[in-house]
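Propose amino acids for all 97 sites.
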């Protein structure tokens, strides 16, 4: 399955209820599974973003649905990117003219 990187920021509501965020993470993992995807890695980070997620999903539409679902609760804002693993990168580059 394709790999995706999602950059996450807490909203004001999310920060106000940050102690509930581990339960929200568990719910997010279930949301991924329920849509045929898998949350592979979770990182709490410092800097411009609060969280980085690494996931695998069947397609971009699935990732969009997950992002909209998570965002609809009002605790986070997300920005997702399709990521290419090393073998995919090598295949892409080798196919260049």
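Proposal:
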């Amino acid at each position: 399955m394709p790999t995706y990187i999602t950059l996450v920021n807490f909203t004001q509501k999310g920060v106000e209820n940050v102690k509930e965020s581990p339960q929200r993470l568990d719910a997010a993992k279930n949301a991924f599974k329920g849509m045929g995807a898998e949350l592979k890695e979770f990182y709490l980070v410092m800097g411009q973003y609060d969280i980085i997620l690494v996931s695998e999903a069947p397609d971009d539409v699935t990732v969009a649905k997950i992002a909209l679902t998570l965002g609809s609760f009002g605790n986070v804002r997300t920005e997702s990117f399709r990521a290419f693993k090393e073998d995919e990168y090598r295949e892409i580059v080798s196919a260049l003219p």
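The domain at 3-94 is CATH 3.30.70.920 (Alpha-Beta Plaits). The chain has one domain: 3-94.
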